[in-house]
Design brief:
alpha+beta, binds magnesium ion, binds adenosine monophosphate, globular, single chain, 42% helix
Length: 482
């Protein structure tokens, strides 16, 4: 068997999913496979690149052992409750065990209609496929838990959006695709039995340290909460804005999932929003911890029916766990920014100092990523690149005096180097590579993926990708692209 499937979700009761077939795309063209990831998954890259392997990624060949399903879920979208969402354009081929013994999902996104497609066509334009490929792989290389891209194909067919667009399919790998919204789906149906089975599946799969606990549900809430707090702190330290932190886009595994209208900040701004559909700024850069907490409250609600306590006591127990979010988040957020700044010790002034650093960037319209990368140069005695990011040097001069005092002029250069990337998937570059790909030029896509595989190493071959965009190149809005 070319892919050794070991499917467990498809063994759950029927109401967890619908059995489906991915759409066939006879004219599909393989664009890229992810060789290191294939090896990690025990898939022979040569096979994956062959006609047979490519046919699997295009939905033309259901491999032996696959048991294709579309998963049921619900969710709060921009705060509004939607009782039924589900995989409307994605098909889970099955699960496999990777080299470290971890169970991973293999899913085709853009694989055609399913019973959950509602009015949609189940397809994906090529643009969002390439965007997710680039950003999810960059995230992983940046050290952030994220779903991965195993391969991408151009379908050779058009999908109808505002204008016709070339279509694509992404082969996505995830620790699982179980979302807060999956729990909400069964909670909304008062299906306690399903909630228990789902909860047990999640514990066995993602939190095995909780196995055997008599009443593990509040411990599960706490464990998911910790991973989400850490995840959001990591996003923010890279200037990442997820853009659609709906409960159906929050994976209980703690991986970043669903790279829709997401983006990395160029110039820093606390309230920055990219998503063209996020008019109220609900998912702005600095709102992300609040929203993660809000989503975790929704998750807690789904677990309460399972908890073996009196009604009032349950709520109190959940509130206790949820109250821990702030501390977990702050710890990760402060520690992470302290590392970026080369601070060896944290004190009571660390929080305000991080805040004032970010204010320095916001007030000076300074590029977030370049500031921290160039601060690494400054830590090694070369201040010119840092200085070139500031039109007005006075605020920077005062800030540098404080920075030297706080670090005792001995910033932790090594930790700074491993925390401050030179290259991130900047929005204007993603748009460029998508435009090129839509005219059959995939070279910028390949070059960008290669450049982002080692984001912490300055590389003169990729100097253009390390530069901040010129003002006229800045892209302030991203679209869902569904
Ligand atoms: P997302 O934007 O990925 O969070 O998707 C929200 C919901 O819309 C999910 O249930 C998707 O499966 C569904 N959806 C998004 N795009 C399509 C499409 N083109 N066809 C069918 N369903 C879709
Ligand atoms: Mg989604």
């Amino acid at each position: 068997m070319a892919i050794r499937f070991d499917n467990t979700y498809a063994q759950m009761p029927d109401r967890f999913f619908e059995r489906v077939r991915p759409a066939r795309h006879p004219s599909a063209q393989l664009l890229r496979i992810n060789t290191p990831l294939a090896i990690e998954l025990g898939i022979d890259p040569a096979w994956l690149e062959s006609e047979t392997g490519a046919a699997v990624l295009a939905g033309n060949n259901i491999p032996d052992g696959a048991d294709p399903i579309a998963q049921a879920y619900a969710g709060h979208q921009f705060g509004g409750w939607v009782p039924q969402l589900g995989d409307g354009r994605a098909v889970l081929l099955g699960e496999l065990i990777d080299h470290e013994g971890q169970r991973r999902d293999l899913q085709l996104k853009g694989a055609g209609r399913t019973p959950w497609s509602r009015g949609g066509d189940g397809k994906s334009p090529l643009g969002p496929v390439l965007r997710e490929y680039v950003v999810s792989e960059a995230m992983a290389a940046l050290g952030v838990p994220a779903t991965r891209a195993l391969g991408a194909v151009a379908t050779g067919e058009e999908v109808q959006r505002e204008e016709p667009r070339p279509g694509g399919v992404l082969a996505r790998v995830a620790a699982s695709h179980i979302r807060v919204g999956t729990f909400q789906y069964f909670h909304a149906r008062d299906d306690r039995e399903a909630l228990r089975l789902l909860g047990e599946h999640v514990i066995a799969r993602h939190y095995p340290e909780l196995l055997g606990q008599e009443d593990p549900w509040m411990a599960l809430l706490g464990a998911v909460l910790k991973r989400q707090a850490s995840l959001v702190a990591k996003w923010m330290q890279l200037g990442f804005v997820h853009g659609v932190m709906n409960t159906d886009n929050m994976a209980v595994s703690g991986e970043t999932i669903d790279f829709g209208p997401c983006a990395f900040l160029d110039t820093f701004s606390f309230g920055k929003v990219f998503s063209s559909i996020d008019r109220g700024g609900r998912y702005a850069w600095d709102q992300q911890p609040l929203i993660a907490h809000w989503n975790l409250v929704r998750f807690a609600e789904t677990l309460l029916p399972l908890v073996d306590l009196a009604e009032g006591e349950k709520v109190e127990a959940a509130e206790d766990v949820l109250a821990g979010f702030e501390d977990h988040f702050q710890e990760e957020y402060y520690r992470g920014f302290a590392d970026k700044l080369g601070l060896r010790v944290l004190g009571s002034d660390t929080g305000p100092w991080i805040r004032s650093t970010l204010e320095l960037l916001e007030n000076g319209h300074v590029d977030f990523t370049r500031f921290f990368a160039c601060l690494g140069d400054a830590a090694r005695g070369q201040e010119s690149s840092l200085r070139s990011g500031f039109r007005d040097q006075d605020p920077l001069n005062s800030w540098l005096v404080e920075w030297h005092a706080l670090t005792e002029s001995q910033p932790d250069v090594e930790i700074m180097r491993t925390r401050n990337p030179w290259r991130i998937p900047r929005n204007h570059r993603i748009e460029e590579l998508i435009t090129a790909a839509e005219s059959d030029d995939y070279a910028p896509f390949h070059r960008f993926v290669d450049a982002l595989a080692h984001p912490f190493e300055k590389d003169s071959r990729f100097a253009d990708l390390e530069a901040a965009p010129r003002p006229e190149e800045c892209i302030d809005e991203t679209f869902c692209g569904t």
